[in-house]
Amino acid sequence: MLVVTTMATSNLGSASWNNADDYESGGELHTRAVKFLDVINWEALTSLASKLRDGTPCRIEQPYSIGHFNMVRRITFTDDVSWVARLRMPDLDAVFGSWESLDPTSLMRVEVATMKYLSRNASVPVPEVYHYDLNRNNSIGAPFIMMSYIHGNAASELRLQKDCPPRLFRTPEQDRTFRRQMADIQIELAAIQFDRIGSLYEDGDSFTIGPEPETGDGPWDTAADYYRSWMRHLVEVAERDADPEVKKKPSFNLPQSFLPLMHQYSIGLTSCGPFRLVNRDFGAHNLLVDDNFNIVGLIDLDGVMAAPIDLVAQFPTLTGLDRETPGHKETKPAAIERIVATRPLLADYQRLLASPQQQSITEDESAARAVLADRITSDGATIVYGLSRFAGHQSSANDRWMGAFERYMGRKALGSDAAS
């Protein structure tokens, strides 16, 4: 049966920015945005931008976008070139919490280095950095980065604007193209290898691996060392931030099983690399797309790091690719329906990782495709995902994954497939 529908129209790029209107007037988030807007020296910012382009006049566009940590405004020059200025706002730990251990300046340093590295060494569409100043007491009034403007919307936001069908990014054909492009980006990152685990930093004219944002530690020489630090950090944050009722339950001890399981189910745990590049915050929320859901940009790059393979081999978030909890028997009809609908999407994405679109690929890409397609459904990658769910501080998730971890332990003891 042919169903004819009218596609929802949408504003793209800076035309979709809502200022602080998404927040309740007078609320803490709205007040922070309005005050920040007032204290920034926008005239000094435009003067600097003009100077960086040999005196070409420019203006700040009125709409702005705000997230948890940053305000973004578009700078338009008289020759129709556009930049964006992204400025770091004061933190609101009481509202958003603080799961990252690195200070804001170091986080911005990581992101600048990552954008510069990928601009030089990959075809992944990332913003080009033109200038940055990480001093909070600079003449502008806040740490900031000036970078190229990419005309697009986050895929997750555009999907909502267009009222797309469940688990689809618009039409089936556009959804397929979007997922293919997403897989190709994940592969291109994974094809880049380093000999240590951690985030990218500038080192003169080159780059080096240093501490990563979540733990604030690193670099590490082995996967086991990194996993130990990550697990310890998750426990410390949970002890500090989780509700008392969550901490009372036996499943709050979930992380204690993680390292023993990884020694049984992971690969290369004690070997010294190489380690592949991954964006740990990779998903539809930081992929900019055009009106047809073609990917035009990858943003918010402070989550990019060189990592162990089972951390690299994770499905993108907010894309309908949520893993099942192994061995958990779901009883709610809506959850069962979601699981059944998700299984073919997971299998299809695994095939996209394995199969290049073009005939000629490099040896590094070929190796990345083979190992990611193999490991993304492995027990090791699933166990890593299970520990990541502990960061949500939810008893229901902890209970499910505690059961899965216990089944994995039992499976090794019995030499069976009890966890599956």
Automatic annotation (TrEMBL):
InterPro entries: AGP_Transferase, Aminoglycoside_PTrfase, Kinase-like_dom_sf. Gene3D superfamilies: 3.90.1200.10, Phosphorylase Kinase, domain 1. Residues 108-308 form the Aminoglycoside phosphotransferase domain. Pfam families: APH. This is Aminoglycoside phosphotransferase domain-containing protein.
